[in-house]
Amino acid sequence: MDRIKSAITYMFLIALCCSISACEAGNDVIGIELVTYPNKIYYVIGIDKELDLDGGTAQYIKSSDKNHPDRRTPEQMDSDNFFNIRHDIDFNKEGIYIVYVERWEFVVSFPIQVVSLEEVKRIIESTML
Questions:
Q1: Per residue of the chain (129 residues), what is the pLDDT tens digit?
Q2: Please, what are the domains in the chain?
Q3: Please, what is the Cα angle at 16 between 27 and 4, to 5 degrees?
Q4: Planar angle of CA 20, 22, 24, nearest 5 degrees
């Protein structure tokens, strides 16, 4: 009888451990996502010299749910080395460039565009017609 009680106790403990492990596994980080783009995604040659990440936020994606309370702005990401910000933007050359936000093996990206002052003037003039 004691063996049966011991076996039942062990099975209960194993089941309890498995359920606790499953709960922890449900909170595993499975990615990151961009919540809001930075306020500035267009840059002008001769005026803008560096990436401006104001207004942008990113967050974890967890296996249990897609909400993570630890949202961080790109400034926080960059300043505390929480996320790595990577890009190869040439602020002297027109084009569309990709900015990568990385943490561990996870990466999310967004585009920015560098335009000439002439292009900005052309766009403004075309909207005034």
A1: 555 544 444 444 444 344 333 344 445 778 888 888 999 999 999 999 999 998 888 877 777 765 555 555 555 545 555 778 899 999 999 999 999 988 888 899 999 999 999 998 898 899 887
A2: 28-127 (2.60.40.3630)
A3: 165
A4: 70
> Between the CA of residue 33 and those of 5, 25, 61, what are the distances in Å?
49, 20, 7
- Exposed / middle / buried, residue 54 (Cβ in 10 Å: 0-12, 13-18, 19+): exposed
What is the identity of the amino acid at 59? Q
Q: Model's pTM, two decimal places?
A: 0.66
> Which residue's entry shows tokens 């990709």?
98
Give the C-alpha separation, 112 to 54, whole Å: 13
- Shortest CA distance to 66 belongs to which of 15, 105, 99, 31? 31
Pairing of strands 42-44, 57-62: unpaired
Between CA 111 and CA 5 the distance in angstroms is: 63
Residue written as tokens 């920015």? Answer: 112
